[in-house]
Design a protein that fits this description.
metal ion binding, Cbl-bd_cap, 5-stranded parallel sheet, repeat, VitB12-dep_Met_synth_activ_sf, 542 residues, Rossmann fold, alpha/beta, 42% helix, Meth_synthase_dom, Cobalamin-dependent Methionine Synthase, domain 1
């Protein structure tokens, strides 16, 4: 009853997520102590539960912090949660649901290819004649995609859940005899509205112009005078066991709080009237664990990075083994924005940041991959196995923070090697102070490091080319799943683009003409190209 009250308070916004997970830790310790007595009681009757919930991160995806939080919150509210972990294939999910008589199935995913896997799961549920409600969640998911792509594949109820604070209310409504019908009716009306909006082109498809017109609207660059800096070192550089105490000074703490659904920017989040007190407690716990990780070297940070001579041909970047540029060792394929809503607007591509081959100038393209290794999940598991989800989630969150800190540190190092980094007022190789850390967090430096699978270059499969160029699996032990998620989870990769005017952007919706051209450039079928770019397709697939 105490945990049910915690769940009610969390759902009403009167408790924050860290408090809920800490309460669950206390409950699990109490249950472990009382287990022998409870087993004796259970012989006289089954323990009642709010319902059975089977959840897993879909095949090809390795991220599970959000899923783990959802499991804890549901457990606090009396649900029997069967967590299948990560990279779970459809057959395992559905067989487990059948075996345990699941009342609800939950699918989680972080990367965009997971959306297709969710559609496959929905279709398979339909083929098997299931009626079990299906909940969709994770960073890459949305209410619109669920309504337009997933729900039509399954006659049972399919509902997108934004975060852990909403999941209990949704589950309770779905399993309530009194509220179920009204909830489903409202959900279906919402889905229909989103589908109608999509069909009418209100999602931005109507602004798509032919790819030739988009290319004509590319940003103008005078390549004769553009400042191109040659890196001091060309080719691969391997970084092994980067000191954790130094990396800690590079950490951006704001996302640490966001992982716990505490919204704000560090350190001003501490001043918020409601969340501030809990944020301070969470931060203190995080700092204590951070010290343990550093002193006992719980994690290992390793990376591989490099620069190579390069030029563009259209939206492709050709990477060469030397400055003679006679031997292409890698080719990266990028896309161009294709929506023009007003006069004078430009259509950007990441390829705009590298000198064209016909400019007769040698430019340089960089790439990197890094990981904190299996050590993060292994250390988190030691806490989770003892019933301490709170500390386990902090460990995972710190693993992600160290990974991003490593990315920031390596980027600073290679910028210094390109000389313009030394103009930032401090150099790499040492810890940074608060002012320098803020300079890095606010990205005031020259250049960008976009990542495959993110808004400006959404195709995750491009990581395969990067992995080969960097020899990443051999050098740092990080691998790619079938959906091109990086494994272990606390891993980061991306590109270095040093153009003085380089900036991040969202690709947005693109037309079939560009997707066809992209497929041809990559040497794949249109269907496969559409698979990797599906969230950005501005047309109905045949």
């Amino acid at each position: 009853d105490g945990m049910k009250e915690v769940g009610v308070l969390f759902g009403s916004g009167k408790m924050f997520l860290p408090q809920v997970v800490k309460s669950a830790r206390v409950m699990k310790k109490a249950v472990a102590y009382l287990q022998p007595f409870m087993e004796a009681e259970e012989k006289h009757g089954d323990e009642a539960s709010a319902g059975t919930f089977v959840i897993g991160t879909v095949k090809g995806d390795v991220h599970d912090i959000g899923k783990n939080i959802v499991g804890v919150v549901l457990g606090c509210n009396g649900y029997k949660v069967i967590d299948l972990g990560v990279m779970v294939d459809c057959d395992t999910i559905l067989k487990t649901a059948a075996e345990h008589g699941a009342d609800i199935i939950g699918l989680s995913g972080l990367i965009t290819p997971s959306l297709d896997e969710m559609i496959f799961n929905a279709k398979e549920m339909q083929r098997r004649g299931l009626k079990t409600p299906l909940l969709i969640g994770g960073a890459t998911t949305s209410k619109a995609h669920t309504a337009i792509k997933i729900a039509p594949a399954y006659e049972g109820v399919t509902c997108h859940v934004l975060d852990a604070s909403l999941v209990v209310g949704v589950c309770n409504d779905l399993l309530s005899e009194n509220r179920r019908d009204d909830f489903i009716q409202e959900l279906e009306a919402d889905h229909e509205r989103l589908r109608e909006k999509f069909a009418s082109g209100q999602d931005g498809r109507k602004d798509i112009v032919p790819i030739d017109k988009a290319r004509a609207a590319s940003p103008v660059c005078d390549w004769e005078t553009t400042d191109i800096r040659k890196p001091d070192i060309l080719g691969l550089q391997h970084y092994e066991d980067i000191p954790l105490d130094m990396l800690a000074s590079y950490i951006d703490w704001s996302p640490f709080f966001w992982a716990w659904q505490l919204h704000g920017i560090y350190p001003t989040i501490f001043n918020k009237p409601e969340e501030g007190k809990e944020a301070k407690k969470l931060f203190a716990d995080g700092q204590e664990l951070l010290e343990d990780i550093i002193i006992n070297k719980r994690f290992r940070s390793r990376a591989v990075a490099g620069y190579w001579p390069a030029n563009t041909v259209g939206e492709d970047v050709e990477v060469y083994d030397d400055e003679k540029r006679s031997n292409t060792i890698a080719r990266f394929h990028f896309l161009r924005q294709q929506r023009l809503k007003r006069e004078g607007q430009v259509c950007r591509s990441l390829s705009d940041n590298i000198a064209p081959k016909n400019s007769d100038r040698i430019d340089y393209f960089g790439g990197f991959a890094l990981t904190l290794g299996r050590e993060v999940d292994d250390y988190a598991a030691t806490f989770r196995d003892s019933g301490d989800d709170y500390t386990a989630i902090i460990v995972q969150a710190l693993g992600d923070r160290f990974a991003e800190a490593t990315a920031e540190y390596i980027h600073k190092t290679v910028r210094d090697q390109c000389s313009f980094g030394k103009e930032e007022g401090f150099t790499s190789g040492t810890s940074v102070d608060e002012e320098q850390a803020n300079f890095l967090i606010k990205e005031k430096y020259r250049g960008i490091r976009p990542a495959a699978g993110y808004p400006s270059c959404p195709d995750h499969s491009e990581k395969a080319t990067l992995w080969k160029l960097l020899d990443a699996e051999s050098k740092i032990g990080a691998t790619l799943t079938t959906s091109y998620a990086m494994s272990p989870p606390s891993s980061v990769s991306g590109y270095y683009l040093n153009h003085p005017d380089a900036k991040y952007f969202n690709l947005g919706m693109i037309g079939k003409d560009q997707v066809s051209d992209y497929a041809q450039r990559k040497g794949i079928t249109l269907v496969e190209a559409e698979k990797w770019l599906r969230p950005h397709l501005g047309y109905d697939e045949q």
